[in-house]
Amino acid sequence: MSQGWFYELLLGWRYTRAGRATRRNGFISFISGASMLGIALGVAALIVVLSVMNGFRKEVAGRMLSVIAHVEVFAPDAGALPDAQRTLQEARQHPQVTGAAPFVSAQGLLARDAVMKGALLRGIDPAQEPQVTDVAARLGEGGVLQRLAPGEFGILLGVDLARMLGVMEGDAVTLVAPSGQITPAGVVPRFKQMKVVGTFNSGHYEYDSTLAMIHLQDAERIFRLEGPGGIRLKLRDANRAPEVARELAGTLSDPLLLLDWTQQNRTWFAAVQLEKRVMFIILALIVAVAAFNLVSTLVMSVQDKRSDIAILRTLGAAPSSIMKIFVVQGALVGVMGTLGGLLLGLLIAFNIDVIVPALERLFRASFLPKDIYLITRLPSDPQRADIVPIVVISLLLAFVATLYPSWRASRVNPAEALRYE
User: Fold this and answer.
1) Residue 389: inside a domain, yes or no?
2) CB atoms within 10 A of CB 347
3) Which of 70, 126, 246, 282 has a 20 to 30 Å separation from 90 between CA atoms?
4) Is the same domain home to 246 and 307?
C-alpha cells in the first residue's frame, strides 16, 4: 500500500484540518490551533526580543565608537612614546588604518567653587583628532575644536560634566593634577586654571559626564610628559580591531601596548551577551511548552482515529506508515506555527520604529523616558545568526513532540480497535 510518503502526507494533512465536524474532533482541532498559535507567538517573541537587543548593542556601540578610537597604542611604562612620529608612520602603513592621531590620557579633578568632579583628561591635536573619532570630526566642522590653542589652556567638557560643574562657555574651572610637587611639607597637588571653550555631546552618558579634552601640548606640560602618551587609530572595519591590533603588535618597531575598543569595554559587552543568552533560553521555553502541547493533541487524535488506523492496517498499511501519518500531522502544525511566527516576528522587528511610537501615542506613555535611558527610541537589528537557530530549534522541538504519540498510533491493535465498531 505504501507509495513513498504520498498517502502518509495526504492523510496527515487531512487530519490536521480536522476531517469530520464532530464535537470531539472540533476540540482536537482547537487544541491543535492553540499549539500552532503558541509556537508562532514564541518564535515571534524570540525574534523581536533578540532583534531589539541587537539594536541596543549596535546603537550603544556606535555611540561608544564616536568617542573612542578603534585601537590605541601606549608606551609600556605609561609615559611618553619613545618615537611618536615613527609609530604614527608605521601604523598608517597598515591597510586597515584610515586615520591616526597622537594623544595624552590622564585622570584629574575639575573644580568649580565648591563642586569637584573626577574627569578623564584627553590631550588631543585638533588638526589630527578628527581623523579618528566622529565627535572630534563634528567639533572640527563646527570650528569648536580649533578653540583649543596651545598655551591658552582651554578645555572642552562633555555636556553632562559641564552641567554637573555648573559651568558654561567662557567660565573657568580648576584642574587638579594627580602628580603633585614635592615640597618640604610633602607632596602638594598641582593646580591649573582652565578656560571652558565649549562643550560636546556624544550621546553616551558615560563619556559626556566624565570626558574633557585639552590641547596636546597643554596636556604634556600639565602632566610633565616629553611627548604624546599614545596613538589613536581608526580602521576601515571596526569589527577587525582585535586582529589589526595583533598584526600591529608584530610590525611596530618599539615594544608597545595595543588595546582595541572591544577590550576597553569588555565588561559591558560580556554583560550584554550574557543577558542575550539568558533571554534566548527563557523565551525558548515558551516555544518548548507550545511544541509539547502537540503531544496531548496527537494523543487525543490517535484515540479519535483508532478505527481509521485499524482499517488502514487491515488494508495492508505497515506500522511505520501509521507512525509517519501522525508525524506528518504534528510536523505540519509545527511548520505552520514556526513560519507564522517567523513572518510575524520579522514584520514587528522591521517596523518597530513605527509600532512603538504608535503605542506610545495610543496609551499616552513613554516607554523610554529621556531622563532615564541612554536612547529614546527602540532600535531593532534582526540578524540571520539569531533567526536561523530559532527556526531550527522550533522545528526540532515540534518534530520530537510527535514521536511518542506517533509510535503509540503504530502500536494500535486492529482487532481491538474494531471490536466495538
Assistant:
1) yes
2) 14
3) 126
4) no
Q: From 211, 229, 255, give the residue that closes a domain.
A: 255
**What's the number of domains the chain is made of?**
2
Is 335 among the domain residues?
yes
Whether 260 maps to a domain, the answer reads no
Question: Distance between CA 215 and CA 152 in Å, rounded?
Answer: 9
Question: Residue 414 is placed in which grid cell?
Answer: 486492529
Q: What HEC string does 252-288 produce?
A: CCCCCEEEEHHHHCHHHHHHHHHHHHHHHHHHHHHHH
Domain of 31?
6-62+268-417
Q: What is the pLDDT along the chain (421 residues), one digit of tens a residue?
A: 445 566 666 666 666 665 444 445 566 667 777 788 888 998 999 999 999 888 888 888 888 888 888 999 988 776 788 888 998 999 999 999 999 999 998 888 999 988 889 899 999 999 999 999 888 888 888 788 889 988 899 999 999 899 999 999 989 999 988 766 655 555 556 788 999 999 998 878 888 888 999 999 999 888 888 889 889 999 998 888 889 998 898 888 888 888 888 887 778 778 888 888 888 888 888 888 887 777 877 787 777 777 777 777 777 777 778 788 878 888 888 888 999 999 999 999 999 888 888 887 888 877 776 556 666 677 889 999 889 999 999 999 888 888 888 888 777 766 665 665 5
In angstroms, the CA 421 to CA 417 distance is 8
